[in-house]
Design a protein that fits this description.
The structure holds two protein chains of two kinds. Chain A contains three helices and four strands. By secondary structure, chain A is an alpha+beta fold. Chain A has a single domain, classed as Alpha-Beta Plaits. In chain A, 31% of the residues are buried. Chain B contains 15 helices and 15 strands. Chain B has helices at residues 4-15, 38-52, 56-67, 81-84, 90-107, 125-139, 159-175, 221-231, 236-265, 286-292, 303-319, 339-346, 352-358, 377-393, 434-438; strands at 21-28, 71-78, 111-113, 117-118, 144-152, 156-158, 187-191, 212-218, 269-273, 325-326, 366-372, 398-405, 413-415, 422-424, 442-443. The chains are: A alpha+beta, B alpha/beta. The interface between A and B is medium-sized, with 25 and 22 residues.
Chain lengths: 91, 452
């Protein structure tokens, strides 16, 4: 079983968000396995599930990198380990 | 695959509804630090604490980042110092408190608890020396917290200890008068104190605990009140289900963090405390939950019933979510730390009598209550005796954290900053219980049959 992380992106819709997040995943070895997104009015929410076993840097550093990307683009981007979702929603 | 709806729910709980891990507390036994030489003892406790919890803060910061959930406090609790400080006199205990403060500073933690004594049946020379040192110790340290257990259901109530605590609380208020008597916010008087509580100011490492242990306290009043509001018009049976489900989810996060911290620190996991701990932040309030259940304002008639139901549902939901539950486990009602409680007091709806009644059905007790600075010792003792009796008679933990704020009157308020919040000065009856308190001795343990 591969270890997964959830990357959530929220903010005002702007061109190329998916490309930017995909780029950073490719750069650090996070393998994207699922993407879902919704646009509510001009508010954008994307959930990306990535495998993090082959990351080229520690996961907590990857968290900082995506958060930084969010800041640069006026978006909220967070990478969170899948365990928090599993423990909360699965019995 | 994880459901998108669940992902968004979790993210919303953390970002919008103030869900956080309130504290990861490492309990540390100091029994192996005992020495007949004061300096050696102080060195021993400093070394043991800083060695055992050395990685607590960096590891918690790491876990916080990994799961994307804030861990607000990192704390240490220790064996009640009166049990291990045998050779110390009062001045020595003040020095010990400073040593603890220095250890806390080295570790970068928020609080260290356990500068306390267990005197429910009587006190030793050492207990008395420690209790006498409390005002000076709290005035000369920043992070040290103190608690004294003055009663248990099995032993009864030590009224001599309560009488003494009245004077200690007043003295602490005076010595910390320049900071709104903040010393009293770090001092709790208990009945039936739990030995594995991760929350301050009452945390200490019990005598039945192992060498070191991890206890975790969660938060989440905002999560519960939002869910209740979303549930809309439903019966109380359905409402109890809503609360149980939210409590389950909150507690699971606590369990996850506790297990991870335990693995990484190499310290066994103790308990998750199920308490709903409010903060002064808007929306992170237990009063707000009670109001979302349908009360016009917290303190109205019906508040005790709503709180009893909330407390029970939180426990039922939380118990299944963690392998070990303990500590205080209930809803906290600290006035100064809860925006809804503050507002209810300021509107004159929530009185000390109502708070006292509420403590009969929920966790802890009269918590973070600021009263006029000229309140007499006897009246403070009366407040403590009443609250402690509720705990003893009902076989539950109760406590008093009361702040007779020096120089303040009803209508004023005191600001402690941070999580300790702002407390409006509440009025107390000024009629004296002095003769009753001064009788001293012990109130016998209550009978456990013929219940009514």
């Amino acid at each position: 079983m591969k270890t997964k992380s959830v990357i959530s992106v929220t903010g005002k819709d702007n061109v190329g968000i998916i490309a930017k997040v995909s780029n950073i995943c490719a750069e650090y070895g996070a393998n994207i396995i699922d993407i879902s997104q919704t646009v509510l009015q001009d508010y954008f929410a994307m959930i990306m599930i990535v495998e993090i076993d082959a990351l080229t840097l520690p996961f907590t550093d990857f968290v900082d990198k995506v958060a930084m990307l969010g800041k640069e683009n006026g978006l909220e981007i967070h990478a969170m380990h899948e365990d928090i979702f599993d423990s909360m929603h699965k019995i | 695959m994880i459901d998108t709806k669940d992902i968004l729910e979790t993210i919303n709980m953390i970002r919008e509804e103030n869900l956080d891990i309130r504290t990861v507390t490492v309990g540390i036994s100091l029994f192996d630090c005992v020495s007949d030489d004061k300096n050696r003892f102080l060195n021993n406790i400093y070394d043991k604490i800083t060695r055992t919890a050395e990685k607590l803060v960096p590891i918690c910061n790491d876990i916080e980042k990994m799961y994307g959930i804030p861990i607000i406090n990192k704390r240490v609790s220790i064996t009640p110092l009166s049990l291990v400080g045998g050779c110390l006199d009062s001045d020595g205990f003040v020095e010990a408190a400073k040593t603890l403060d220095r250890a806390a500073d080295t570790l970068g933690i928020n609080f260290i608890g356990g500068f306390g004594a267990l005197v429910h049946k009587g006190s030793t020379r050492c207990d008395n020396a420690l209790i006498d040192a409390i005002p000076e110790a709290l005035a000369s340290t920043k992070m040290v917290c103190s608690s004294v257990n003055v009663a248990t259901t099995k032993a009864g109530i030590n009224m001599d200890a309560i009488a003494k605590m009245g004077s200690i609380i007043k003295k602490t208020a005076y010595l910390t008068r320049d900071e709104n008597s903040i010393g009293c916010a770090k001092l709790v008087v208990f009945a039936n104190v739990p030995e594995d509580n991760p929350f301050m100011a009452g945390a200490f490492h019990g005598v039945g605990e192992p060498d070191a242990i991890i206890n975790v306290g969660v938060s989440g009043p905002g999560v519960v009140s939002s869910a209740i509001r979303r549930a809309g018009d439903c019966s109380l049976s359905e409402l109890a289900e809503v609360i149980k489900k939210q409590s389950f989810k909150i507690t699971r996060v606590g369990q996850l963090v506790a297990r991870e911290a335990s693995n990484r620190l190499g310290i066994p996991f103790g308990i998750v405390d199920l308490s709903l701990a409010p903060t002064p932040a808007i929306g992170d309030s237990v009063a707000d939950i009670l109001e979302s259940m349908g009360l016009e304002i917290c303190g109205a008639h019906g508040t005790t019933a709503a709180l009893a139901m909330l407390n029970d549902a939180v426990k039922k939901g939380g118990v299944m979510a963690s392998s070990h539950v303990g500590g205080l486990s209930g809803a906290f009602i600290p006035v100064s730390e809860d925006a809804g409680m503050i507002s209810a007091v300021e509107k004159g709806v929530l009185s000390i009598e109502k708070l006292e009644a509420m403590t009969a059905v929920c966790s802890v007790g009269l918590d973070m209550i600021a009263v006029p600075g000229d309140t007499s010792e006897a009246v403070i003792c009366g407040v403590i005796a009443d609250e402690i009796s509720i705990g003893v008679a009902n076989t539950k933990t109760t406590a008093v954290r009361i702040i007779p704020a020096y120089g303040k009157k009803v209508g004023d308020s005191v600001d402690f900053g941070g999580l300790l919040g702002t407390a409006p000065i509440m009025s107390l009856r000024s009629e004296s219980p002095e003769v009753f308190i001064k009788r001293g001795g012990r109130v016998p343990a209550p009978i456990h049959s013929l219940k009514n």
